[in-house]
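User: Please run a holo structure prediction.
Assistant: Happy to. Please share the sequence and the ligand.
User: Here you go; the ligand is 2-(butylsulfanyl)adenosine.
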Amino acid sequence: MNLEEAKKQIDTLSAELKQHNYNYYILSQPSISDFDFDQKLKELEALEKEFPVFLYPNSPTQKVGGDITKNFQQVKHRYPMLSLGNTYSEEELLEFDERVRKSIGNEFTYVCELKFDGLAISITYENGKLVRAVTRGDGVQGDDVTNNVKTIRSIPHELTGNFPAIFDIRGEIFMHRKTFDRLNNNLRKELIEQGVDEDKIAERLYKNPRNFASGSLKMQDSKEVAKRSLDAFLYFVYSDQNVAETHAESLQMASSWGFQVSDHFKVCQNMQEVMAFINRYNKDRNQLSYDIDGVVIKVNEYKHQEDLGFTAKVPRWAISYKYKAETAISKLREVTYQVGRTGAITPVANIVPVQLAGTTVKRASLYNADELERLDLYDHDTVFVEKGGEIIPKITGVDKSKRDLFATKIVYPTHCPECGTALVRKEGEAIHYCPNDSHCTPQLIGRMEHFISRRAMNIEGLGSETVAGLFKKGLIQSYADLYSLTYEQLNGLEFESEDEAGNKKKRSIKEKGAENIIKGIEASKQVPFERVLFALGIRMVGETVAKKLAQHFETLDAIIAASPEQIANVYEIGEKIAENLIRFFADTDNVELVKRLQSLGLKMAMEFDPNESRSQLLAGKSFLVSGSFSISRDELKKLIENNGGRNVGSISKTLDYLIAGDKMGPEKLKKATDLNIKMISEEEFKAMLNH
Ligand code: IVH
């Protein structure tokens, strides 16, 4: 490699690694496996060693890792938070051992611990009280997340026993796998109910427990953090006082002061014992309730740790052995294509069932046409399946040497596998869509599931699986059919349902269930217009948009009659949403459907309290309500809306009036004065209405 080539390669690798660091530490959305990251980092390190002229101080090889998020106060660590050297091979581990022995002789022991896959935290205790908790940040300073850390039950606020007056304790904050599954599933349901497109849902879900824990710890609202049931293991005491002679003793001490220390550690006499520990947990790690990504090996005696000291980045007395993501080998049975509620197509590999990370895997995601092309998949190929902490396993590669001579290549379909309509792919997007939204079965079922969901029509007693069952049995074809279902039709009805892993179950509706469904359907007729509008599942018409449209137009007829410009001009609606609405109501089937729903008793207009007076006195004017008043702020906002005005959330040049109450914040006052916004009192506002 010549100088020019080396520079180019170093620049490319640095830029790539910086981006991955950003994705991992700041966005909490890793974009590469740990293994690949470490490989790239090592490649860069080797190049920089060979071409030291290109070793820059801001190279990713010269940093501990993370960066700092803006929202928290920065605190400098009393002892820098270093990372560990790591390896994936036994050979390199033996080299580490050799280096250690060369430096301190043979009279020492190692402690093997699990490498918890979470995020590092440093907590300071003064006189037995938790005073501060700081994330690793860039190793020198991190975010002060004390309030969030205090919500973690296993972290004591006050200590017991004989502890040093001032010390730092380091550990790992993590989320148990079960908690992750539960919370991520709830989040998925919530996003579905909010009407988020399914291809966007995958992006917004957390990728793995580490990711979720990290996202949680960086939240601004500690009350929310408390709901995330985070947990912590502590593994290192830093104190100017001597607490113990060895690391193992210090762990026992920490435990006696009230810290949660993992039981899974072992003092090892030699490398055979170290390797045995590593192999044991590689096998058993699925039985733990949390993720680990390797084992940390530390020299046990503090005096030896001191003799060994540190390199610029890592201690010479410790190393981590990282496990590779678990891979299984299986054979492709077929590729099927799932069609979602919005028509998004997801290719899925159906494979010969195989054990992987403690579960049986039958299906793995292939994401999209590009991924299929990248894998170059053929019929009955031998495939590598990996579960890197994500919920859905993925196919990471193909063993082409095992390919059948006459196998044919898997070709992405041009037409919808469910309804036969030609697929479309929007420019710049990786996903194909089936545009036949009015007649393609899975789209219809998906929309039906949305219609009955909690935030839409909230039909109690009726769940997604049942509604899909009713559809497949031919009992319902459109939303309107729900309203003619009878108890007799439902009671005793048997159907088959399928969960996300592709497992089929027989289900049946019993008497009580049938009764509840009928009751739930009847009760849904009371759901207000704005939610009915949301329930219709019109693209881009989520909860907030539906509410704005309902408040502005007041009746469905007015929305149908409105021109694209009239819709687009509603505050914060815009052309794209207007286009979708116009397209929806241009379809006579849809108009007929809503008319039928109306005649069945669903609310297709806003209902106003006859005691509330309404007018258009404030039409076109925007208001910001700030401070406290003789009536509640919500009541005041309602008055504004009922009289045609618009409430906004922040001060900007375009704001017409700021209604200033008692105890209005000084910043708002300053900003409003700077921007020359008209400020009025509650009395002046009321006077406007009496005109
Ligand atoms: S000891 C100077 N022990 O791994 C030694 N670290 O790659 C400090 N980690 O930043 C670290 N489990 O976030 C240590 N039992 C364990 C660990 C552990 C997980 C993390 C920690 C550290 C990273 C280093």
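The CA atoms of residues 331 and 382 lie 5 Å apart.
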